[in-house]
Amino acid sequence: MKSSQSRSTIAVLALVLVRNIVCAPCTSDDITNMDVSGCDCPSQFPSPVTDLTCIGPAQVCSQTCGNPQMTIQSRSQLTQCGQGCITANSECNGCYIWFHSLCSCIRDLQHASTTTGCSPSENLHPGHPNQPIWMLLNAGDLITTTQLLPGILQLNNAPDPDGGWRLGQRVLQQGHSGQTYNRVRGSLAMNSVATRSEEQVHIHVCDNPVSKIRDKLSSLWRGNYGTLQPVPLTTAEGFRPGSEMSCRVSPNSGAVIDMARDISGYIGSLVAPPASCAAYYVGAGVITDANDYTWACVTTGTRSAEELFCHT
Known about the structure:
This protein is of the alpha+beta class. The longest helix is centred in the first third of the chain and has 18 residues, at 2-19. Mean pLDDT is 88; it is low at 1-20. The chain starts with a helix and ends with a helix. The strands form 2 sheets. A 9-stranded antiparallel β-sheet has the order 3-4-5-7-6-10-11-9-8, with helices on both faces. It has a two-stranded antiparallel sheet with strand order 1-2. The chain is globular. It has one domain. The protein has 7 helices and 11 strands. Keywords: Signal. Residues 1-23 form the signal peptide.
């Protein structure tokens, strides 16, 4: 009898121990390597997202540039500035997309039986690709990459800098559960350093059926926009001050357009920081016009690409 009771006690204790095993939080390297099977995606984020708290001392990062000098202040807080979502910035509000959203997508896709709205540019199961991929996150409104890249100024460091833009255009074409966007009414936007709220590069996938940008581009003579050219956006047309962009149109209707070369080319034409602040205001957007031609646009003013392409 005692032997039987001892075995039962040991079994219960073993079960309790198994249930209380907590994996270490996933590091930035775990996410980059696309293997989070042996760790937990950080989930102790307070609610709402705007109140996220860094695991270390937090600070507001800033950039000083221009002549006369001005300070561009980050909209998020980090423990260590200038390095993106490294492990030291776990649970900071500026890295929620990396440590929670992307990490959760990788976890769900590694467990093929898990229902998920995440959509990778390459298959993650079994194993994982030998280079970074792009990922539509679960809610269907953001795309990021498994490569650690703070934002648009580092986009060209990706082995496939257009991968996220192609994925976004595919998503607009095919749709996503719970979203109403499509190629006709949808748009893509990547914010500038000065206007972004996350320190991991990402593309907003938006539904904007009454877009003023779409109306404006539909009114232009496409023959003038085979290369990136300024598009005037006036207050008389309903655009707020600080709305500035240059655009290029696809040669054929229904086409997928590349965006990265326009971004890198425009940034390369600017006086680099800290001598000038201009690069910190560069954003990007993709949208179709009323005739289904696709436009690649570089935003250059104080208004964010998200504001112009998703909410104007």
